[in-house]
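Translate sequence into structure tokens.
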Amino acid sequence: MSKHAMSLLPRWCSRIFSVELNGAPFYFAVKEKHLGEDVPRVFREVQNRDKCYSVLVYCSRDRIKTAKFYGELKDKLLRDLPPECRLSPMSSFLPNVRDSLVKGYFLKGNSDTSSPIERLLSDLIQHDPVLVCSYSPAEDGQQWTQHMWSETASQVMDVAKGYYVVPSEAPEYHPSTLNMINSDVYYSFDEAYDVMKKCGDIIPEAKTVLELLPSRVEARNKPDFPVIVIEGLDATGKTTLTESLKDTLGATLLPSPPECLSPWRARFDQEPPLIRRAFYALGNYITAEQLGQEGMKTPVIVDRFWHSTAAYAIATAVSGPVCNLPGEGSEVYCWPSDLFQPSLVVLLTLDPEERKRRLRNRGQGKTDEEEELDHNLLFRLRVEEAYRRISGPACVTVDASPSADRVLQQVLLLIRGKCHL
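Result follows.
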């Protein structure tokens, strides 16, 4: 067992454990004594002969390697576990304590699969950042116990001391919200740059991305012309509107992420959130450099910007219903202080069924996040609400269900009123 894991054991019974089932978190805790508590929801549908396990990845000093290890662990488990084994995201944390979140996976197997599962876990425990626990029911199925695995004389065994598994109320704050800043969402050029720079030795493409960045981020004169950002989910009419605004206003149209990053998007989409989000955050600073230059000559229309980067990252990091999002006014929704602020941000909204109909008619491929929007209602609701809560500047919502001409006229009225064009 790692020294880092051992250092947390004195507070082990203060920690809360979360298992994500069907997109929603379910919580439990552990105690040294059982006082007749009910069986936690996670274990209610587990059969008496089944056995469950948790694999937690502790954060080392090198959070790049930890993030990579965590992502690769999921691939290894999916590849090597018996097909009958169920794998779910899991975490452990101290309630309302920043940076206490430890991520991992929860495994459920039956009596026929326990041996191959435990062989795999025996190999995993050799890795320093991994802590494995097993969960077993009492004969009556009314109590479950947790045992930590330890390696002694090259033999993996349960630590003799076990803990009773008991229900736990949901914490005041979803645990991810306390570990999100400059990890899932970046709020400065330097933070994102530092992550990308440290990736250079393990991801060759990271060095190329760094070469495309502005030499430094500094305060610049305000452009002579307004910068208008158009936000919204796919198939809400962003492309049609941005092209129309370009022609009507004689504006420059810029995409975000910038086109110069297109060759590497698929590569970084495969990376864990810490690295993937840094890549897209730096794309915003490249776009900011471009719009600052173009805004000295013409109005600028931007197809998505920081709102999209943040809204999708927040909605992905936080599972479950909208109430799990950071509360309105949270620092999570604040615009980065060193990133150019547009003159106006328009958020196009559309009825979900109409949006799906438009997507089907387009017949184009979708990103993994857009695929998630289609089959996960809670995820879509979280994205939409995160958009609305971002401040500095906030989004102005426009219904995109009328004809394209009517939407254009409505947005032009907003631009003329706000930007005096």
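Note: The longest helix spans residues 273-294.
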